[in-house]
């Protein structure tokens, strides 16, 4: 059984995890910041993180540290969601540095939706949208084909 752990804030990483789960028949999906006690039926763990200010979600690194200590007999893979696909290589490397060498890292695109955020987060999202529009760059979207490609590689 594959376990998909998502680490996000405004719902995109969870949505990407759900899209991935649809393509992985034998899989479970779980909020990575919550505690999961039983890993006995898991052979693969896929961690998904958003990017905030050029960094992975804090919980991602924390969870990977805890999992490494458990020395589970599982394979690890990861996916990233973010707004700026031009930086995807850099963002994927952040996960690559933490995961074992044989891990496959995917980039699933992202979303900017101010309606799903409050306060400063909402303001940052609105500012990101404004900047992209000023430069005539289309708004990010989750990439179904990238998810299919990821499934083929893991
Ligand atoms: C405070 C904040 C900082 C962000 N920083 C970055 C960034 O440095 N690079 C980037 O490509 N996207 C950045 N984004 C965009 C998010 O990665 C993108 O909206 C993603 O889909 C959010 O996933 P989530 O809804 O699961 O949190 C940022 C978004 C917010 C709200």
Describe this structure in words.
- The chain is globular and about 50 Å long.
- It has one domain: Flavodoxin domain (Rossmann fold, 3-Layer(aba) Sandwich).
- Helix 1 crosses helix 5.
- The model has no long low-confidence stretch (mean pLDDT 96).
- Strands 1, 2, 3, 4, 5 and 6 form a six-stranded mixed beta sheet that branches.
- Helix 3 links the parallel strand 5 and strand 6.
- By secondary structure, the chain is α/β, with parallel strands linked by helices.
- The protein is 40% helix and 21% strand.
- The chain contains five helices and six strands; from the N terminus they run E-H-E-E-E-H-E-H-E-H-H.
- Flavin mononucleotide (FMN) binds next to helix 1, strand 3 and helix 4.
Q: Give a short account of the largest sheet.
A: 6 strands, mixed
Order of helices and strands: EHEEEHEHEHH
Structural class: alpha/beta
What is the general shape? globular
CATH topology: Rossmann fold
Strand content: 15-25%
**Structural domain count:** 1
Identify the CATH homologous superfamily: Flavodoxin domain
Number of strands: 6
What labels describe this entry?
154 residues, alpha/beta, Rossmann fold, 6-stranded mixed β-sheet, 5 helices, 21% strand, binds flavin mononucleotide
